[in-house]
């Protein structure tokens, strides 16, 4: 964190689309990419006389998200109308939550201080609401085209405390939040697809001052790095303003990615009086405390906890864990292999090596991968107990991917069982020394570094079946 | 609490009601007069009373996450004022309003 | 049945005749349209109907006839013509809510209440006139002209369900659907000399009822007699999964309530199955309504003020005497916060309405006026041309009381006082009182154009609006004439106790007989 004349104070509001099959208040599909307005009905079109009915899966996913973020889930929460006019808001109000949201008071760990303490960003609240449709300007000249397929898709809004102190920290918050929500499997959390959207509130103040400065709202950032750059730009603007004796005015600014700058929104300020009142078409959402407790117990393991556990139980190094954690499904697979084979190190190497390579080639997802964890564990065990060599194992693996047969069977069929018999090994060593007199002479004269090359020749001659460890020992004992 | 003409013009704008100057004066009088009758409520002690959230006991019913074909006859075109290629079409926001602002 | 008999026959009798094959649905529909022509239901005369399609109705009647003949499922309203208030969505005819902003709108879906009537065999013959978006007490706020009172065309039919009350009063249909937010079924029923019911909030699905004030709205029924209202309510009541505020309380057979016995259920709990039948399984016999032994009826002092019209007071006292003569005990009670009801209502209802009417913006349906000055101008011009004066006034009032700085003083305050008003009813019903009796309105019908001050018009609801705020059921029953205009008496009971409400209503109707209309 740089030392500046002013401290940066940032709070982030993140909107996340929940991955339900149907909308929040009606049975229309939430599928992405349908032709305009085909996923609509009287409710999400706001036809006269239509009424909302709440989707239970949206509630389940919202509660899971809230619990996963460490929030307290309120057994009673109330829906409210947020009233404003916009052509993609068909009712002229959005069903959201105001006074009594679904959840409050969570936190995300975004890093560590120098003395090892966790750096936390607080979460003020998490509430449920519905998405609006899409407005497409200038597709037809002088007009705006409205598509209501997205109208009514369930969202959660996650509001952070103004605890974020730098653009880098904002990025860390967003990346961590995204990962947690992925692990919880509540959303696709893709900014590109619009299932995750970010608005920022930023103010500055002299270091040490506790009172918050006037904040501005920054919108229209379409990637995490855009958020970071937008915050830097607005921070600079506010600092310059204060330095020249000016005052920061409360306003909404839009990030212009092309120009790398913020500019004021041209919609009139003060025109947003949302006139919130409790939604009379829905009774309060009542959640049984026992059900909430069960949901907490049944949460998938969160990234932080998993990281800790992998470090402590399996002894994997931090850098390696980060690599694995990048794909939640990969971590699951790795863990299954590690436990079944009782060799986390080998499991790690195989998963990050051969398995990842195979997935890249085939383009498939890990959960469809033919080689199941138990199968790979068997292969690792075969290597460990000396039945086949590591080199042979790679060949076996390739055949496992191709045929789907178990490791032991392939090893037997292909005759790849490792040869540990000293007689055979000695024979091969002799042959290699004869066939490569040059290297043999230099090795026996003392060039130890040629041992690897000679072992390689033996492996090749033995079609990978020789036990490399034993070969090494035999060669060493020949001299050199 | 009287309602002023400025109040009326402001709330008319919030409600997108397009009230003209003459009507604004009339409405100011009418609303002020109606609101006078409401003043009696300020004398009622409601400090210990919970506002009615709506009649009826129990929480809101929940619906399963299953697709339902809407019970709806005919096409959107049968009632839409203006559609093109499946989109509802409206006049562009006037130039002083920002086109890149999304709704939600 | 002769055409004359059709104008006075009850729904039960018509349905029985249709099921027995003595009358065809086409005959009942034709009789309804003939009566409509004779009485002048069109816009040049009483202005009861906004939309009707005789040819389509006859076609439907023919299909209904086939249903009846094939012993298919037909319900308790087989072949009965019904009229529907124009803020209730129906297929085939427009749903305009009495407003220019929906003048040509035909709903692509139908209200649950209407589907249920049709499932029971009823035939929708017309959409009826109403105050625009149900805001009014006279039907003078309709964009399509007022509805005249069939008893005397100089007078209003009441509102906002004026057309529905007039359709029944004029003998066109025995049953009509209306809507209640502050008295909009009971008041016009009282003005027109027919029966009007506001069910418990949540008793009838609101899906398809164009919302005015969501926490107050209910679809109500108008009937020639108490029996017609009881049958209609049984047909439409019950849980609807499309309405999150609808109740899953059981629906009793209201027609049996006069017998004073425990209420048998109209249908199996948790199912949509109707009671179906056709001869030789008859409908329940007409109730025997001669005794109210053991019933305690409350007379709330706030509804019988010093200033109450003498004529109305006399008719109410006569009704109370009849209750006594049938064995009921009359007890003086108090609903002390009732005088606060009109201010509370006129904060809460416009507030919810201002939000509910925001969807009328010219984007997806209804009127669009585009002066080619951009989107905002389209919104403002469409809404100012599409909405009438009362609607505009209430949207502004509602927006104001919800706006920043005023929410606590007005909206939140009104919701708290609403709780007190509901508590008053709870206290009375918990003290051993089975039903409360009051006048329905402070005066009989007034002449068209007589009231121009908005708040004076609002005071028409003074006796009816408390039931909407508390959510309790209430019925208006004719109790006599004043200066030859009909007067109604109101019976109010506890939540979901329509059974007791009908019991007392049947008794009063039977006791007064023809005197109720003299």
The side-by-side strand order for the widest beta sheet of chain C comes to 1-3-2-6-8-7-12-13-11-9-10
The top level CATH class name of the largest domain in chain C: Alpha Beta
The CATH superfamily name of the largest domain in chain C is Amidase signature (AS) domain
Q: State the distance separating the first and last CA atoms of chain C.
A: 26 Å
How much strand of chain B?
A: 5-15%
In this structure, how is the largest beta sheet of chain C organized?
11 strands, mixed
Query: In what order do the strands lie side by side in the largest sheet of chain B?
Result: 2-3
Architecture (CATH level 2) name of the largest domain in chain C:
Alpha-Beta Complex
Q: What is the structural class of chain C?
A: alpha/beta
Question: What is the alpha-carbon Rg of chain B in Å?
Answer: 23 Å
Explain the overall architecture.
The complex is a heterotrimer of chains A (480), B (104) and C (518). Chain A is an alpha+beta fold and 480 residues long. Chain A is built from 16 helices and 17 strands. Chain A has a nine-stranded mixed β-sheet with strand order 3-7-8-11-1-12-13-14-15. Chain A has a three-stranded antiparallel β-sheet with strand order 6-5-16, with no helix packed on it. A two-stranded antiparallel sheet of chain A has the order 4-17. In chain A, helix 15 (451-461) packs across helix 16 (468-478). The relative contact order of chain A is 0.10. The model of chain A has no long low-confidence stretch (mean pLDDT 90). By secondary structure, chain B is an alpha+beta fold. Chain B contains two helices and three strands, in the order H-H-E-E-E. Chain B has helices at residues 5-14, 21-38, and strands spanning 62-63, 83-84, 87-91. In chain B, strand 2 (83-84) and strand 3 form a beta hairpin. In chain B, helix 1 (5-14) packs across helix 2. The relative contact order of chain B is 0.07. The radius of gyration of chain C is 22 Å and the shape is globular. The model of chain C is unreliable at 269-283 (pLDDT under 50). Chain C has helices at residues 3-6, 11-19, 25-39, 54-69, 112-119, 162-169, 186-192, 226-236, 310-325, 341-356, 375-386, 389-402, 408-430, 454-458, 465-470, 498-512, and strands at residues 49-52, 81-85, 123-128, 148-149, 152-156, 175-180, 195-198, 218-223, 296-300, 329-333, 435-439, 474-482, 485-492. In chain C, strand 4 (148-149) and strand 5 form a beta hairpin. In chain C, the strands form two sheets. In chain C, strands 1-3-2-6-8-7-12-13-11-9-10 form an eleven-stranded mixed β-sheet, with helices on both faces. A two-stranded antiparallel ribbon of chain C has the order 4-5. Chain C contains 16 helices and 13 strands. At the B-C interface, helix 1, helix 2 and strand 3 of B face helix 10, helix 11, helix 12 and helix 13 of C. Strand 10 of chain A pairs antiparallel with strand 3 of chain B.
